[in-house]
Records
---
Amino acid sequence: MNLQQQIAKQFRAVYFGGNWTFVSFKDKLEGLTWKQATTKVHSFNTISVLVYHTNYYVEAVTKVLLGGPLDAHDKYSFDCPPIQSQEDWERLVHTMFTNAENFAVLIEQLADSKFAETFIDEKYGNYYRNIHGIIEHNHYHLGQISLIRKLILEENKS
């Protein structure tokens, strides 16, 4: 397995399973209703907002991998459109999984030399750093989703 395939596998594992943590977006989002996904717990972001947020950066970096500019702004990364039905929620989740697979395919297609190249601007480091940053970022928010989900499901038992 070459470097590109290994990184793509690691990226996919966050979404579809098979990583060291035994936690994936697929596992934690499966069976959630739109009401649960939009439930506010304490001052935390909702699950739907975290799904939107992680996908926001995958979409932004995908555009770069396709040769486009980096057009992402932290201030917009939590601006999840309203989720008002199960269909809205399922559309958001489907979009996230589709974008994740497309991103993984693009990683597999990168030339070895691309990982060492500057990612848009020196201040962002290289492609390797940014792709792994996406993986780390998604693990971080997946952990949040796991905890929020657990709190919501425990509350529903009461």
---
Amino acid sequence: MPTTTPPPGKAALTGTPFADVTASATTLRRFLHGLPGVDTVGLEARAAALGTRSIKTTAKAYAIDLAISMIDLTTLEGADTAGKVRALGAKAVHPDPTDRTTPKTAAVCVYPDMVATAKEAVADSGVKVASVATAFPAGRAALAVKLADVRDAVAAGADEIDMVIDRGAFLAGDFMKVYEEIVAVKEASGQARLKVIFETGELSTYDNIRRASWIGMLAGADFIKTSTGKVGVNATPANTLLMLEAVRDFRAQTGVQVGVKPAGGIRTSKDALKFLVLVNETAGADWLDNHWFRFGASSLLNDLLMQRQKLATGRYSGPDYVTVD
């Protein structure tokens, strides 16, 4: 049976093929540069081919409900108010107030100062509260500031922490700094699950995305996540496929299962179902659960609700039948 992520640091790798990988900056760099190079053409062709798979009506209804249950319903704007967060929490608990059979979303995701408000809004519903931290989205702050950000969110009741890696350090080749920062944030997160955001649109190459995925997993991430949603290129089928391959391979070699969260740019039911096909065909059915796969989204939920209503009634309800976030 796969396990959840062990405690951070080298203890997590004891007894695995990676026990000595993080012993020094040199060994970590050697390991990361020794990973197989990514076949760009092959990766994108496979992602495109899987995207053509059709899902029939019965399976489609199941997949839509599954996708709803995997959403981290998100508001990360400077103009966020307590009222907006309370409304978002209410929508997460009852996405379609006219149909109480509609699944809850997995979580609401907010800034640290809104965690307490979100926690109150979702109460004991089972919806998690996730908080971005570590100077999201740029990550340009001293480590002490980032850790304080995390601790504040956890103290306010965050169930999950979404951190951003130091892309500057990564692109400069300082992989050990990135690794050690993730380990420190994991420790500061306590019992909260940790999602590590790579900002794939800034990493430039698929090889870099693969290396970042392994750094995150070696450091004890509970999830690896594509993007903040704040740059031009966010989640794509190809970069998500690459990350799914990474978590699949990591579990095969360590027994440790790590989740994946594509975020940013996934707006339609059609897109979401394509990602679920990627999950099933690449990592496998064990990841088809919101404990292991999430969508970072805001507008996606409304389209899923409209498609769900259409399957139930035979009529397309239109955007006026769902709330505007």
